Amino acid sequence: MNRKTLLFGICIGLVVSLMIGSLGQVAVNAASDWLTGTVDEKIDKLASIQPGYGIMMQQIGQRYNDLYFSAKSGNWGFAEHQAEEIQVILQEILMVTKPKRNEDAKKFLAASFPMILDAIKKEKFPEFEKAFETLRNNCMNCHISQKVEFVKLKKPVLTTSPVLAGVK
Ligand code: HEC
Q1: Is the CB–ligand 1 distance for residue 101 below 6 Å?
Q2: Max CA distance (Å), the chain
């Protein structure tokens, strides 16, 4: 290899490595445009955007509807899934991110579980409906205690889950 070819090779190598380097930089910047500051500040920012009651209650509301129509259509496996997910959202998300409401959350869980799961296991809709009514009241007790008594839950009339399409 003569000197000219060697120099050319080194130059190409430099250009390519600079390109790769700057691409990497762009990717890093794009991922962290908003996540700036010290590590502590970054953690605070991430913590502040974890889902709270506003977001997760909509999800719980949907699962409450789906729970009712799963049972009504005899899909007891899906009913159990919905009830468990309601429990998980409270225990593993809301009680972690919003501990101020934990006393009421604990009361709700103790009054509702395993009560609703036991009713699901029996696979009899009239019995389930009674348990569901208790669940509805348990949910609303927390709303009253948390001063959002205007969130009055009605008996479900509609489900939007594709698993339950057409169930009335
Ligand atoms: C630990 C207390 C607590 C429990 C238990 C609870 N909720 Fe809520 N719920 C709230 C609070 C607080 C709000 C108001 C949301 C906010 O603060 O942004 C709310 C709001 C809601 C909303 C309105 C959401 C919206 O913004 O459109 C629905 C629907 C709802 N809850 C359903 C339920 C159902 C169904 C249950 C029972 C399976 C339940 N909740 C149990 C505290 C609770």
Answers
A1: yes
A2: 91
- What pLDDT, in 10s, does the model give residues 27-82? 555 567 999 999 999 999 999 999 999 999 999 999 999 999 999 999 999 999 99
Helix 125-145 with 115-122: angle, nearest 10 deg:
160
Nearest to residue 164, comparing CAs of 92, 90, 72, 85? 72
Span 131-144, pLDDT tens digits: 999 999 999 999 99
Please report the pLDDT score of residue 3 as a whole number: 60
In a domain, 163, yes or no: no
Instruction: Give 53 Cα–ligand 1 centroid separation in angstroms.
Output: 7
User: Do 57 and 117 reside in the same domain of the chain?
Assistant: yes
Check pocket membership of 85 for ligand 1, CB cut-off 6 A: no
Domain range spanning residue 114? Answer: 53-157
Eight-state DSSP code of residue 100: G
Number of domain units in the chain: 2
Distance in Å, CA 129 to ligand 1 centroid: 20
Measured CA to CA, the distance from residue 146 to residue 105 in angstroms comes to 10
The structure's pTM equals 0.84
